[in-house]
Fold this sequence. Notes:
391 residues; alpha+beta; Serine Threonine Protein Phosphatase 5, Tetratricopeptide repeat; Jelly Rolls; 3-stranded antiparallel beta sheet; 34% helix
Amino acid sequence: MVSVTEQKHELIEQVRTGAVARVHEMLGKGADANAVDDEGQPVLRIAAVEGEAEIAALLLEKRADFRWQDRQGHAALSPELIGLPTLHRIRQHYHRLGDAGWKRPNLHEEKLRAWAADLDQNGIVHLDGFMDEASLQALQAGFAQFVSRLNKKILRGEGYYRHYDEEEHWWPRDRAYVSNNAFSHSAALARLASRPELLKLVANYLGQWPNITRGIAMRYLPDREKTHDMFGWHHDMEDQRLKMMILLTDVGPDDQYMSYVLGSNRLFHPFEMFLKNPCSLEYCSNQLGEIEIFNTQGRAGDVFVFDSNGAHRGNRRPDAALRDACFVEFSGDRSDVWGGDLPEGALEGLEWPDHDPFEAFIETEKKWDKATARQMPTWVENLPHIDSWLR
């Protein structure tokens, strides 16, 4: 019979040597995630200092106390001691562990199980037949109202792009109409994003019930080929955030579709790529071997769900048709919720499997109403604030 003291000493030793499997096994059998060594250092601090990100994530999953402080007042995961790159790796591993105390939804329907398998394997899935014609027409009507409203602003000399966080804008450089408040002009979009089968699919992938963080509407006018920003291969500087993309216009092989590197959702990107987010095909092939690219071509009403941590890009063509699309973002935590407006009665009568996906969205101050003084992506700014991204 192993004593508590012996178990503690073994856990500390396994943490120091990076024995991930053994630490996982010991925690599963009741080892104390808040054990301290003879100098009073908790195992969470030890794992972080040693650079054992996956072990630190396992300890956080078992509710290790990240608020513990040493005599100098430094918390267990103080970035001053362990550095942002290590903290970034800890967060990536933590978000991909799931929550041991969370019960995954039952995917009874055969189509839902197939969608989940595709999403896990490839990072993107086409939800064939997900939207009906009435919903599509309602989305298209709301989108037309957004474009009409923005066109009136443009005629007055207003509505031009100023910064990424604003509510809506016309971006002359990219010949694009953009709204970060897409739910405001489409109750149909809110109801589509709330469908139980979609939430089950997203929850199964994220490992917890999701929060809806933003609704986006985008129109791309035909334009020359571009390779900057979203039109070059990149990831979205988020880890395990899912996006639902709804085509409101037909998108064929000669049009402005999105391309996605299959399986790149499984990559762990270094911290530097969360400051500047290019994610080249060479980078992907170095880690994945031979790569395969999926293009989101389809008919108006087609729906795709993808992990924006994977490598993807938009494609522009001067002779293409314009492309209209709506996007909804889902995240497992609340560290980057944009907020927004919902039409009155948009969620009336809806029932969710477990968690209200719009709760954080409604409670959060709208990002475009906040001061725009951030020096780096919100995802990076929130990194030292552990409680913002823990479940």
